[in-house]
Design a protein that fits this description.
single chain, five-stranded antiparallel beta sheet, globular, binds zinc ion
Length: 379
């Protein structure tokens, strides 16, 4: 029966291991699992299934070993996306947990398909989506290549203007996808930049790195704590990733040409987190949140209430880190070196309090964040 199904997982963003298939309980049950790919964590997957038979039928995707993913359970709050040939990425229904005798648990989703179907953990985001952002921005946004990745891919920076060495314009520096699979961060950044372009916002300079871990992104890495060094733990006096080195130099250029005012990092949280958008704040030696960053956090919280903001919005990270000082997060680096408020945002992968999010919702979230920035800078 397994020859009835083949998996392609070596394409763009591809990640997935095929473990078999069988006809069962009125559906074609396909067994697969995400791969860790050079990291101590797994979550992201993206693959295409091709079926020998062309008839439409129920496909039951069973993700084995999903209990090893970063926060993937409970899958009842997880809605991966699927796309049939020529169609759009659409959310699947809530997942179902399938307990095994020894305490492990598989994750199950069902959908209909005929000759082929693609699955991904969340809406993919890469160069094609970035291209459409630029095309829709009517010349407001510029694309520059600030370097090439270790594997030769473009390290792209988007900006609305370059500032100038005598400028006192407030400057924002935005970062996304230090963890390659965290596509919700990209969608929110997309909404942020799109809104600035729609408003043709002036009087601020925004520089943004939309696809920082581009090698990991295109190779389908989840990228959380990925080897040889997590991009978001490689910032510091001697950056431990080449990409981070390139971005630090770009940040230094930016700081010469604007009045550094705010830095934002766009991430995704654990796989099933669904209490809403929230952000981490930089802390001082005593563990207290930076006051200026906290003020910005309150502005964003207001803008994202009541539908998108988590009840606990501005947070201090207290989870254990695999990486030691002096190598640091982007958020700590920007706050300590440039002494500016810095926020590290988390945008849920699937749901907020039971509401399943579409790509447009992330764009709306980013749009509201952009409006909050303009409002606060004007005040
Ligand atoms: Zn992250």
């Amino acid at each position: 029966m397994s020859s009835e199904v083949t998996m392609e997982s070596d394409g763009l963003y591809g990640n997935g291991l095929f473990l078999g298939a069988e006809e069962r309980d009125g559906a074609l049950e396909v067994y697969a699992t995400p791969q860790a790919k050079e990291a101590p964590e797994s979550l992201w997957f993206c693959f295409r299934l091709k079926f020998k038979s062309k008839r439409s039928r129920k496909i039951r995707l069973v993700l084995k070993h999903f209990q090893n993913s970063l926060g993937g359970f409970p899958v009842e709050a997880v809605n991966p996306v699927a796309r049939v040939a020529g169609g759009r990425w659409e959310r699947l229904q809530n997942g179902r947990s399938l307990p095994l005798g020894d305490g492990r648990c598989d994750a199950v989703w069902e959908t209909m398909a005929s000759s082929s179907i693609e699955f991904a953990f969340c809406f993919p985001y890469g160069f094609p989506e970035l291209k459409s952002l630029l095309e829709g921005a009517g010349g407001y946004l510029k694309k520059d290549v600030v370097g090439v990745s270790p594997e030769g891919r473009e390290l792209v920076r988007i900006s609305n203007n370059y500032g100038s060495t005598d400028s006192k314009m407030p400057g924002l520096y935005l970062m996304a996808r230090q963890h390659a699979g965290e596509t919700t961060g990209s969608w929110a950044m997309h909404g942020f930049l799109k809104r600035l372009a729609e408003l043709k916002a002036e009087g601020l300079s925004v520089w943004a790195i939309p696809l920082s871990n581009i090698d990991g992104i295109e190779k389908g890495f989840y990228g959380k704590d990925n080897f040889p060094m997590d991009l978001n733990r490689a910032w510091g006096p001697c950056p431990m990733r080449y990409e981070t080195n390139v971005f630090q130099r770009d940040v230094a250029r930016w700081a010469e040409r604007v009045e550094p005012s705010l830095a934002i990092d766009f991430h995704s949280p654990g796989g099933s987190e669904s209490d809403g958008v929230y952000c981490f704040l930089p802390v001082d030696e005593c563990g207290s949140a930076d006051p200026e960053s906290s003020e910005w956090s309150r502005s964003f919280e207001e803008a994202l209430k009541p539908d998108f903001a988590a009840a606990s919005f501005g947070r201090v990270a207290n989870y254990p880190s695999r990486w030691d000082h002096p190598y640091a997060h982007f958020e700590k680096y920007m706050n300590k070196v440039y002494k500016i408020p810095t926020l590290s945002f988390e945008f849920p992968y699937s749901q907020i309090r039971g509401r399943v999010l579409n790509a447009e919702d992330y764009v709306a979230i980013g749009s509201r964040m952009a409006e909050a920035v303009l409002k606060r800078l004007k005040a």
